[in-house]
Amino acid sequence: LKVLIIGSGGREHALAWALAKSDKVSKVFVAPGNGGTATASDKIENVDIGHSKSDFPALVKFAQAQNVGLVIPGPEQPLVDGVTDAFKSVGIPTFGPSAKAAHIEGSKAFSKDFMKKHNIPTAAYGNFTDYEQARAFIQAASFDVVIKASGLAAGKGVLMPTTKEEALQALKSVMVDREFGSAGDEVVIEELLVGQEISVLAVSDGYTVVSFPAAQDHKRAYDGDAGPNTGGRGAYAPAPVATAQLLKTIHKTVLQPSIDGMRRDGFPF
C-alpha cells in the first residue's frame, strides 16, 4: 500500500513514522511534510504540494499518478475545505470526515448549537457576529467567561480573561482588531469551566464509536495555568483522571449522541 499524508506538522510526522513501520506499507508520501519527515525513514518521501483548497487538484492528480491507496489528512483546515470529498470523487479511500461533517470542527458556534439541540453536555454560551451585542452579553454575564473565535485558529483562538475588563479587551482583540483573522467573524462567549480537561479521540463508521486512550495536554504557556493557550503542547496519554467509569459516561453522553445526531441531521461522520 502507498499512503499519502497531507500536512506539515508534528502530527503528520508521527503518522508517517508509524505507518512506515508497517510491513503492509511500501511508501509514505507527505505533502508537503517537514524536516523531520524528510529524514524519518527510507520509506517516507516529502512531496512539494501544499494543502490549501487550491492545491486539492494537484494532490488528487499526484495520488492517481502514484497509485496511492489511502489518504490521511492531518490538519483540520483541509477537512473543513472538503479534501476528503475531492479524493472520494475519484475513488481513493480517505481517512477523515466529509466537509459537511467537518463543519462541527470548523465552527465552534455551529458545534455549540448542535450540542444544545442533541442534549450533549456543554458550558453555557452565546454566539455573536455583532460586537456590541457580544459586549452587552459579557457585561450582563453572572459568570466568568471564555472568548473563542468560532472558526479554525490552529488551536490558539481561545482567550481566557480573568476580569470583566480583560474579557471586553479580549473580545475587541478578536472581533475588532482581528487577532485571529476571519476565524473571529463569529465568536462564542462561554462560561468558564475550571478543572481537569481530557481529550478523547475516537474512530467511527457513522454508527459505532471506538475510543482511543484519553490524553491530556498542557493548555497554557506558563506555570500555574497562566499565559495564552499553546494549541496543546506537552500531550501525554493515557490520562490518569480518565477512569473507566468516566470514559463510560463520556461515551454515553458525548460520543454516541454526537455520532447519532450528525447522522440524523444529514451530515454523518
Would you mind describing this structure in some detail?
The strands form four sheets. Strands 3-2-1-4 form a four-stranded parallel β-sheet. It has a four-stranded antiparallel β-sheet with strand order 5-8-6-7, sandwiched between helices. The chain has helices at residues 10-20, 35-39, 56-65, 76-81, 83-88, 99-106, 108-117, 131-140, 164-175, 244-264, and strands at residues 2-7, 27-32, 44-46, 70-73, 125-128, 145-149, 158-159, 187-191, 202-204, 209-211, 216-222, 226-236. It is α/β, with parallel strands linked by helices and 269 residues long. Helix 2 links the parallel strand 2 and strand 3 (44-46). It is globular, with a radius of gyration of 20 Å. The two termini are 25 Å apart.
Q: What is this structure, in a nutshell?
A:
By secondary structure, the protein is of the alpha/beta class. It has helices spanning 10-20, 35-39, 56-65, 76-81, 83-88, 99-106, 108-117, 131-140, 164-175, 244-264, and strands spanning 2-7, 27-32, 44-46, 70-73, 125-128, 145-149, 158-159, 187-191, 202-204, 209-211, 216-222, 226-236. Helix 2 links the parallel strand 2 (27-32) and strand 3 (44-46).
Notable characteristics:
single chain; 269 residues; alpha/beta; four-stranded antiparallel beta sheet; 12 strands; 37% helix; 22% strand; globular; Bifunctional purine biosynthetic protein ade1
